[in-house]
Amino acid sequence: MKVKINKASKIIKDWLKPLSKGTYEPIIKVWSGPKGTRRHFFNGMKDRRKHHFLSDGERRFGIYHESLPRVLDYYEQFPLWDIELAIKTAHEMGIRYPMDSDGEAYVMTTDLFAREYNQQLNKIEKVAYSYKPLASLDFESKHPVSVNRTLAKIELERRYYEKKNIRFKLVTDAHISKMCAKNLLKHRACANFKHEFIEHEERFINEFMNIWFAYENPTVNEILRRVKPKLVLPKEDLISLFDWGIWTHQIPADLETEINPFRPLVMKEVV
User: Fold this and answer.
1) Which among 81, 90, 77, 74 is positioned nearest to 29, based on CA atoms?
2) Beta carbons within 8 Å of 124's beta carbon, 6+ residues apart
3) What is the CA radius of gyration of the chain?
4) For a pLDDT cut of 70, what percent of the chain falls above it?
5) Which of these, 44, 54, 36, 56, lies nearest to 173 by C-alpha position?
6) How far is CA 211 from the centre of its chain?
């Protein structure tokens, strides 16, 4: 069946209108996503807008991605806007491009499309991320036809972005656990008022890490107590600086272990 692009072209045209005025709107919104799934609004800090995540896993990935200092901004449910290229890529792969019963093409989407600063190349680059739960790729728990179809769509997406000279990455729930997202979310609020303490950032991080090295299995509270006379800051600012260090990954805590101020702080790696 020949693929029609009338509906898809209109969807993309309508999506481009607010984008041309500087406003991003995801192609699939929370209220129009798949029924029977857990969907989430998430108030973003980097671009000050409400993100639309269509699963718990996508929300966890959004939280993690927003915390990375290299990420400038990110756009969820981002369409493969060049419909003709997407269809052509599917034909080259020998697979059926997604369409409805009337042969009208669906608009495929990327879970998260980001602009990131590449420090090594000293430039801003675009990166497309596809999020998939591991279960959707498991031949033992899913029908082989379903898994193969999912893998084919991932490959179509990868080839599409390759032709656009945009990096593409596959992410699963093995990359961002519930505990990792919980730890980050717990320390995230400090970003709303970082202007109140950011001038002390570098010295705090250095003093914090020096004390962690100097004592055996110190708790967060113990470290903050020892940092306080060195920086002469109120406790509230020290707590905010610690939260900032965790949120921005400058304090390399093991995010797979729950961070508790009354327990020893476990580090992921020490360089």
Assistant:
1) 77
2) 72, 115, 116, 117, 118
3) 22
4) 97
5) 56
6) 32
